[in-house]
Give the backbone structure.
Amino acid sequence: MSFVGKSIRLVLNTIPRPILQRVAGWAVPMMGILYLGKGRKCPICGAERRRFLPYGYGKVREDALCPTCLSLERHRLLWFYLMNNNAERFKNLPTILHIAPEVCLMKQFKQIYSAKPQNYITADLESPLADMHFDVQQIPIADNSVDIIICNHILEHVESDHKALCEMYRIMRPGGMGIMLVPIDYSREVTFEDDTITDPKQRAEIFGQYDHRRIYGKDYLKRLSAAGFEAEEIDYAATFSDYDRTLYSFGCDKLYIVRKV
Ligand SMILES: [Zn+2]
């Protein structure tokens, strides 16, 4: 692992997330100076670098983090999906609830929604950057009132993901869409969870990160459907050329899209 990779992993594992969220905006771009050059391009902010920065709590992934907007592989992939495949959907600025908003996507949405800022709502348990603060298992928003929900890499942290999914189903307007990515171990048929494991060190060893409560397996789609959604798994990166997959460094995450019929 590179020196930068090791340093980033150490920082992620020792500094509390709210502090990270405050300092990442200037600290990461400074590190990006080490990667000046061409060969990678971020579709979200347009930055070009020799490579992206390494990133990861446990296993560090090389070529992952955009030093300018802080996008990761999955954000870049998702951005293409939203802006290429769903451009129509965003035309009239439908209501978006963005849970635990990724800064790279939030900045773009705030720009797109500058004419109707009230339609783009961000929420988080504790982030100072979010509009609303709530537990996703109990969402203080009316039934059938949100058109699009973005909720990435949250469900693996939540005590009852079923409760959270039912809440998101409840607030989604019929015809609405959700993006719900989670880390998945495709070698597992069934999701592994054990509520008796609460020690952060043990969780990091067993679940891959100190604050994860489960490791999802191939049954993730079924868990989405169990809340009422029509759920779809899309290997969107496979629709790009080898050249583009390297240029944008998409990684190997699949997209998980839900709809309320
Ligand atoms: Zn970027």
